Amino acid sequence: EFVLTQSPGTLSLSPGERATLSCRASQSVDSRHLAWYQQKFGQPPRLLIYGASNRATDIPDRISGSGSGTDFTLSISRLEHEDFAVYYCHVYGSSRATFGQGTKLEIK
Amino acid sequence: QVKLVQSGAEVKKPGASVKVSCKTSGYTFVTYGLSWVRQAPGQGLEWMGWISAYYGSTNYAQNLQGRLSLTRDTSTGTVYMELSSLRSDDTAVYFCISERETTGSIYFQYWGQGTLVTVSS
Is A5 on the interface with B (CB under 8 A)? Predict the structure, then answer.
């Protein structure tokens, strides 16, 4: 069974700090199939990154994605209040998809 | 402007079925596939299945095989999600998504607003 494991489960930081979120796959992933989403309470998720490192439309360059193989990272520099939310990594290939369990980014 | 508008909240009894609609606009419907994702209260995201808007072919998550049916109406640009034999753990917000593809990357670009389905006796 293919699994995506995100860490940490919760990340407590202050505005202005840098956040680093991890997503580890149970087997190697084509990086073209790795995406990141942000979800705020009561809203649908919002696409941030696709193809592991490509920012979606209107996503600021403070947000970046990297990684390959089984290890992927979402980085957010200079945290702003709007960044505090839940983040999910996602792999989609052959018309099937898997999500990580999510990382909650909270204000310290 | 791409929009996906889902039908309203539903309350169902265990064993019943539910059918949620998702009407798309702002793009050529048959060009892109659509997926459904659900989120139980306070939980993460679970992919349910996919339908080709052009062909109508489908793929379903293994744990929903036999209970999930995705269909589409190309004349109205609407996709439907029907889940049968409902159980209490099917209580969730259900999202439809219109996918996009770029150089081999397929991703969930446009999301519906979500439909809360509550299963309770």
Answer: no
Which chain A residues are Cβ-neighbours of B44 within 8 angstroms? 88, 99-102
Minimal-distance CA residue of chain A relative to B112: A44
**Mean pLDDT, to the nearest integer, of A33-45?**
96
For chain A, give the secondary structure using H, E and C: CCCEEEECCEEEECCCCCEEEEEEEEEEECHHHEEEEEECCCCCCEEEEECCCEECCCCCCCEEEEEEEEEEEEEECCCCHHHCCEEEEEEEECCEEEECCCEEEEEC
Instruction: Report helix, strand and coil shares of chain B as percent, to nearest 5.
Output: 5, 55, 40
Give Dmax (Cα) for chain A.
40
User: Which residues in chain B land under pLDDT 70?
Assistant: none
**Closest CB to A44 among B33, B47, B114:** B114
Sign of CA dihedral B22, A100, A27, A23: positive
Most B CBs within 10 Å: which of A37, A40, A50, A55, as the mutation test of the B interface?
A: A50
- Residue A93, chain B, CB below 8 Å: the answer is yes
Select the residue of A50, A51, A102 nearest B44 (Cβ to Cβ): A102
Q: A35 burial class (0-12, 13-18, 19+ CB within 10 angstroms)?
A: buried
Specify the pLDDT at position B100. 92
pLDDT recorded at residue A50: 96
